Amino acid sequence: MATVTVGQAAPDFTLPASNGDEVSLSDFRGKNVVLYFYPKDNTPGCTKESCDFRDKVNDFEAKDTVILGVSTDDLTSHDKFIKKFNLPFILLSDTEAKVCELYGVYKLKKNFGKEYMGIERSTFIIDKEGRLVKEYRKVKVDGHVDEALAFISAYSKV
User: Fold this and answer.
1) Which domains occur in the chain, in start order?
2) Rg of the Cα trace of the chain?
3) Quick check: is 46 catalytic?
4) Model pLDDT for residues 31-66, shown as the tens digit of each residue
5) What tens digit of pLDDT does each residue of 72-120 get?
6) Which of 11, 17, 46, 75 could make an SS bond with 23 (beta carbons 3.0 to 4.6 A apart)?
7) How far is it, in rounded angstroms, from Cα 110 to Cα 1?
């Protein structure tokens, strides 16, 4: 059950982070945040999406925007993923899917006839005051990062 609504305060949370700290969403007040949920480290779609964010990280930073990736993978998996693809942003480990459930992205999925619970690829843009200003659900990877960057570029001019 999603508890996030555009225009409302984004639910705060604290998770173990790839930088060795416990990171809270509220740590980034004063900056825009791109919070992207992805199914699994080192899978083709997630690798492409993360590398697309990596390749545009300077453009996001120029808009005073931090990128945070979230999956249910553990920190060891995140560390390998970051090293393999030189990802310059924090990945958060939500092994119990509590934050995924909070944001309504932990769903029943089907693959090759099997049903399982997993993350529905989703991105949330949170403004400097901590309000959710845009959500992308059921994200298609191609062009998504450019779309998010275009939104932030337009939003930050308001």
Assistant:
1) 14-155 (3.40.30.10)
2) 15
3) yes
4) 999 999 999 999 999 999 999 999 999 999 999 999
5) 999 999 999 999 999 999 999 999 999 999 999 999 888 888 898 889 9
6) 17
7) 19
